[in-house]
Design goal:
The complex is a heterodimer of chains A (117) and B (116). Chain A has strands at 4-5, 10-14, 19-25, 30-38, 45-51, 56-59, 62-67, 72-77, 86-94, 106-107, 111-116. With 117 residues, chain A is mainly β. In chain A, strands 2, 4, 5, 9, 10 and 11 form a 6-stranded mixed sheet that branches. In chain A, strands 1-3-8-7-6 form a 5-stranded antiparallel sheet, with no helix packed on it. In chain A, β6 and β7 (62-67) form a beta hairpin. Chain A is globular and about 40 Å long. By secondary structure, chain B is mainly β. Chain B is 0% helix and 48% strand. Chain B has strands at residues 5-7, 10-13, 19-24, 31-37, 44-50, 53-57, 65-68, 75-79, 88-95, 106-107, 111-115. In chain B, the strands form 2 sheets. In chain B, strands 2, 4, 5, 6, 9, 10 and 11 form a 7-stranded mixed sheet that branches. Chain B has a 4-stranded antiparallel sheet with strand order 1-3-8-7, with no helix packed on it. In chain B, a hairpin with a 2-residue loop joins β5 and β6 (53-57). The radius of gyration of chain B is 14 Å and the shape is globular. The chains are: A mainly beta (117), B mainly beta (116).
Chain lengths: 117, 116
Amino acid sequence: DQQVKQNSPSLSVQEGRISILNCDYTNSMFDYFLWYKKYPAEGPTFLISISSIKDKNEDGRFTVFLNKSAKHLSLHIVPSQPGDSAVYFCAASPGTISSGSARQLTFGSGTQLTVLP
Amino acid sequence: DTGVSQDPRHKITKRGQNVTFRCDPISEHNRLYWYRQTLGQGPEFLTYFQNEAQLEKSRLLSDRFSAERPKGSFSTLEIQRTEQGDSAMYLCASSSKSRRLSYEQYFGPGTRLTVT
């Protein structure tokens, strides 16, 4: 049972246009959401995150939107650049129960973004 | 800050052999995680350390797997009697002791294991 789903395995966008990557989750205990970018043969690189108390977080060209009622989040990249071509993973973490809580991340299966020059 | 490092980057072993991987987290981070990633999937949680204490283990972590973090700094992940199904990328991540920042995990480059 996939608790975090990225239903689009791939997305192609023209350079300079907006890239929108989507993610859905099912577990109501998730309280914090993150996006990672991954290049081949490298580990995931943290991009941006959002707490469940917010509905938007912005960092430069990257904006994450959270719709808690729909259990949906999206990552917008504007403008898209060829260097953004990578696999993007959505991840979710449960809220804290105690200071020792693992807060392990549950990942989606990723979306391969290709930005065409 | 040199980031999270992992060694080796690649390991090829024969079925039935034991392998050990090492992870060095970001120096001020007290939380350390191991994940496994197979082709076409996102990373899956294996185990978690806070300082030297192993506080959580996934059901994915069979009896053949053991992890340690003896002094609360680097960690090792050992797989005994490897099987072909163990072939995967093994990722280590660390996060800050700050309650607010502890959600943000920073990953190493991974160790790619191939069991022949």
